[in-house]
Amino acid sequence: MVKHGITVDLSHNSGKTISDILDYMETHHKNVPMIVSHSPVASTYGCEPYETIEQTAERMDKLGLKKGDDHYRLAGCYRLIDAPDAKRIAENSGGISVTFAEWMMDGVWPEDITPKQAAEMIDGAVQEVGIDHVGIASDDMQTVAGVVGFAQKHANLYADNGYMLDAFDRGATGCGEMSKIMAPVVDELRKMGYSDEDMAKVFSDNLMRVYEQTWK
């Protein structure tokens, strides 16, 4: 991929695979940045992305939380990126692009993703890796209906302890469609103190910098 100018993307991978690729890239291609093209950061929600549902239940029990409590969550979605991996990507000049898909959130799902929640997902990544290493995802699905059907038919393909199907069953099928929410997301980021320069980096410049370094 590096030889042929293809950007290395770590989304859709397990924690072990991400770690292995990071190790390899840091050894053999130290100055070639990588990206996570469409995944939120786990620390935004206080989640542990690679733990099982049973491990989450034990953690919730130790915290004295029960189903129905505001801060109770089923588990961290397997698609979330943990903070150490995100920081390693940033240290190698790469970027994390968050996606506004409801089932990738914190295990406590609203009816729809609000602009404020989308801004919080961006800000959560910025807090971990800095303003120069965060972008927004380009996979605006509009609806996850096709994903739901495929996942239900091929449930055995997902090593996520049933997290995704449980999320779909609970109604977590929304997407924060960019065409609907991008303008008010800008308003929410301004309320958080983001400047026009900051938002230019998040909405385009950071990813374009990576692509200029990796594409041929």
TrEMBL record:
Q: What name appears for this protein in its UniProt entry?
A: Dipeptidase
Q: Which residues form a coiled coil?
A: none
Lineage runs:
Bacteria, Pseudomonadati, Pseudomonadota, Gammaproteobacteria, Vibrionales
- What processes does the entry annotate via GO biological process terms? proteolysis
The record's section on InterPro entries has: Metal_Hydrolase, Pept_M19
Gene Ontology MF, one: metallodipeptidase activity
- Any Pfam family: Peptidase_M19
